[in-house]
Design goal:
Number of helices: 18
Shape: globular
CATH architecture of the largest domain: 3-Layer(aba) Sandwich
GO molecular function, one term: L-serine ammonia-lyase activity
Protein name: threonine ammonia-lyase
Organism: Nocardia tenerifensis
Catalytic activity: L-threonine = 2-oxobutanoate + NH4(+)
Structural class: alpha/beta
CATH class of the largest domain: Alpha Beta
Strand order of the largest sheet: 1-2-10-7-8-9
Distance between the termini: 48 Å
Helix content: 40-55%
Keywords: Lyase, Pyridoxal phosphate
Length: about 400
């Protein structure tokens, strides 16, 4: 990699000056519950409240604004299933440049509608993002439009780095910054900025365990493609780190954490309930790290800032994730109980549940299971509980009443 590909503090400060009139300086919010858990002051950097709902317009605007006039005239093209699409569409429209965005056929309707609303021409191609990227590359070669990569370009990295400059203004004594990480553009930019301006600050990248390309890549000393990915955090589900981000992350970020799916859903629920912030699963990754034992083992130097990188979530997915988060937090219990199919059987079951103080959310019957005797019925109960201990109390009460119980997934 040549010197042209390295990002310096001069480029980052130039990006900050360029972005100042158009990008929101997003707020920071104190989190008492996370501060108590971490044993030090914790702040949330709310990039979910940025224009288009994520940090992505910072890099997209900086990249497009730095194009020479002849390239601007031919427009820009991008491939994305979500936040990058909206960032490119908004940035291009703001600069009076045409944009074409290729999205997979299965892209969520809210993200599709938002990308169109920000001014892009949207074309849906293929089933996965790689198909859309191939189509975008072909379009760029055929039309002369400039392909705007989501993370693998110095101007993108410099634009994302401006998040760190704002954090230093807002929390001058910040000790640790946790950053959700996919391709690495945000992590790399913030790491470079903090290395130059506040070298004592610890920068920690956070990946979804089911889509963690960075640990293996850093161990190999080069970007390595991870195999199968399966995570709710689609915003950071990137199969291979970018070459430009990799160089900077390898030099400046010694710590990379991974978080599991339960941690992500619990973090999303905490942001919603306690901070009153809607955050997408990828955006909640840093909070998930703080809530998991992995972060407590780090001996974090405070104050800590967790970046909420985005808040664009399909309402249908949000509904499912709230249920998943409640279940993971021990506040939602679904059980299947076999009872006698005689009058009073159901009321006796509900009486046992009622004595535990659990609240019944839903009840349904089934008489068709092959494992059921002729005089038996299976009752599916969805219960609201007060936490893991209360959940265990409910299960113990049912067992003591000699019910056959299966906990549903």
């Amino acid at each position: 990699m040549g010197a042209m590909d390295l990002v310096g503090i001069e480029q980052i400060e130039a990006a900050a000056q360029l972005l100042a009139p158009v990008i929101r300086k997003t707020p920071i919010v104190a989190s008492r519950v996370l501060s108590e858990r971490a044993g030090t002051e914790v702040w949330l950097k709310c990039e979910n409240l940025q224009r288009t709902g994520s940090f992505k317009p910072r890099g997209a605007y900086n990249r497009i604004a730095n194009l020479p006039a002849r390239d601007r005239a031919r427009g820009v093209v991008a491939a994305s299933a979500g936040n990058h699409a909206q960032g490119v569409a908004w940035a291009a429209s703001s600069l009076g440049i045409t944009s074409t965005v290729f999205m997979p056929v299965g892209a969520s309707l809210p993200k599709l509608a938002a990308t169109k609303a920000y001014g892009a021409e949207v074309r849906q191609v293929g089933e996965v993002i790689d198909d859309a990227l191939d189509a975008a590359i072909e379009f760029a070669e055929r039309t002369g439009a400039t392909l705007i990569h989501p993370f693998d370009h110095p101007d993108i990295v410099a634009g994302q780095a401006t998040v760190a400059l704002e954090i230093l203004e807002q929390i001058p004594d910040v000790g640790t910054v946790l950053v959700p990480t996919g391709g690495g553009g945000l992590l790399a930019g913030m790491a470079v900025a903090l290395h130059h301006l506040a070298p004592g600050v610890r920068v920690v990248g956070v990946q979804a365990k089911e889509a963690a390309a960075w640990p293996g890549s850093l161990a190999a000393g080069k970007p390595v493609r991870v195999g199968r990915m399966s995570t709710m955090a689609d915003g950071i589900a990137v199969g291979q780190p970018g070459q430009v981000p990799f160089v900077h992350v390898a030099e400046h970020v010694p710590t990379m954490l991974t978080v599991d799916e339960d941690s992500l859903s619990k973090a999303l629920l905490l942001c919603l309930e306690r901070a009153k912030l809607i955050v997408e699963p990828a955006g909640a990754a840093a909070v998930a790290a703080l809530m998991s034992c992995a972060a407590t083992e780090l001996d974090l130097q405070g104050p800590v800032c967790a970046v909420l990188s985005g808040g664009n979530i399909d309402p249908l997915l949000l509904t499912r994730l709230i249920g998943h988060g409640l279940s993971a937090a021990g506040r939602y219990l679904a059980v299947r109980v076999t009872i006698s199919d005689r009058p009073g059987g159901l009321s006796a079951l509900l009486a046992v549940v009622g004595k535990t103080g659990a609240s019944v959310v839903d009840v349904s019957h089934s008489r068709t299971g092959t494992w059921l005797a002729l005089d038996e019925v299976e009752v599916s109960l969805t219960l609201e509980t007060r936490g893991p201990t209360h959940r265990d109390d409910v299960l113990e009460a049912l067992a003591n009443a000699e019910y056959s119980v299966r906990v549903a997934d």
